[in-house]
Amino acid sequence: MSEPARLSRTQEYLLAVAAAVVTANAYYIHPIIGDVAAHFGVSEARIGLVPALNQLALAVGILLLLPLGDRYSNRRLTVLFAIGQTASLAIMTLAPDFVTFTAGSTLLGFCTIAPYLLPAYASKRVAPERLGQVTALLTAGVIFGILLARVGAGWIAEQFGWRTVYWIATGLMVAITLALPRLMESGERTSGNTRYWPLVFSVFRLAGQHREVLLSGTIQALNFAQFIGLWLGLALYLTAPEMGYGTDVVGYLAAIAAVSIFSTPRLGRWSDMVGPRKARVVFAGIQFLGIALFWPLGGSVWTLLIPLVIVNLVGPAVDVTGRMTFLSLEPDLRTRLTTVYIVIMFVGGGLGSLLGTAVYDAFGWPGVCIMLTLSSAVLTLLCSVARKLGR
Fold first, then answer.
1. More confident: 245 or 103
2. CA-to-CA distance for 127 and 74, rounded, in angstroms?
3. What are phi and psi of 292, to 5 degrees?
């Protein structure tokens, strides 16, 4: 079969928009987590189960479902999983109690496969020298989705209540599900004769053959855990009586992520030039300096802007460079290698969700800051080790 046609620039940007919409669903909870906890009458530690189970279900879903991207059309699978996300959001929107809401969120995580099929789909349709740039563009779309979710959810919940957030989210998913079949082209080459379970188990074999994916996944697990733990802890901190702000202020602070939309594609191009492993060490070191400032500058919303800008400038680039270490390998392996990477990443996200809320419940904002600083120090060390091993 002939190679699939290259993506046009318009298609690349529209895929980034699609990545934004399908990614946003997991992050609406961040600024409104206090409101949801109060509505259902649960503690700060217990409400952490909602994002934690979402992230862990996503890891399971990716392990069981994402390998299908090397067997079946990425286009068909993306549409199917988008339908699953839409149904899950409807359950959350109408949930009468905490258990139903948590179940809907967990199912949402299991079905959130589309954001991770899209980079593999695009990687087969771009020139090798533009892989970093296009991967960064899709990552910027993911960042925009997270930004839209957190800023929009905070403001909408403050004005109209948290359920309105999920009504809007469901409507957006209906629209994107209808658009995806027209945006994504068919005709890709897949391993259609491979049985399902051997395909899933082949993920473990490939992980053993490409051990750098395990290291890159571990680095991103720490990176993602920091991101989740930071924003859940920060939302609880800012809306607590100690600070006394509303969810809209949490959303306004989340707008700082807009800097990533502009910085990440540029950092991706720089990573193409110097190599992903060297670039990742630089980004991790800068991020460590930013995270170390959260405690001394945490007494004011205005001073918090400084570490938030630093972390948002380089944090997503750690992910981009991690993906670059394996997305240049054989096309037929990329979806399954992405599976390894993303599963490890979302196990980290699940732990970050639990720790971010539990540590805040037990030790307050200073405890969250100490946890994040220690995690970032380990992450930076692992990036240095990965660079030496990759030479």
1. 103
2. 19
3. -65, -20
